[in-house]
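ingest -> validate -> predict -> emit
validate: passed (alphabet ok, no gaps, 145 aa)
predict: started
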Amino acid sequence: MKSFLAALLLTAASATAFAQASPVGLWKTIDDETKQEKSLVRITDNGGVFTGKIEKLANPDKQDAKCDKCTDARKDQKILGMTIIEGVKKAAGEDYWDGGTILDPNKGETYKVRMTLIDGGKKLEVRGYVGMPLLGRTQTWIRVE
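emit:
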């Protein structure tokens, strides 16, 4: 019985460590300009391709907000529940994920994205950019789960 419990605890610890080594999870987004919480975004791994969807908006007055500035299929769709991160993959031999896009629903703009775990996986640097990563902005998101 003791060995079973030890194995169970080890398995749970391994799963937690793996989750911390990946952007998979629920993240509190912090606006890089206002430093205010904006939303909760859930990042999932779909066969090595990561996506992120807005699960909650921090502002109760914005729960029915739509992406009126979007120019793609998300135009006039509700922001709550919207997929804003698409096509991101682990960079081979690197400690970051990129190759996909991120949508800023407030501006309706889509950017290339690079995500890097920091602080032992407790935070995620999310950099949206045009062209190359040097030309962009970074937000630091906080892991909720």
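The CA atoms of residues 112 and 131 lie 8 Å apart.
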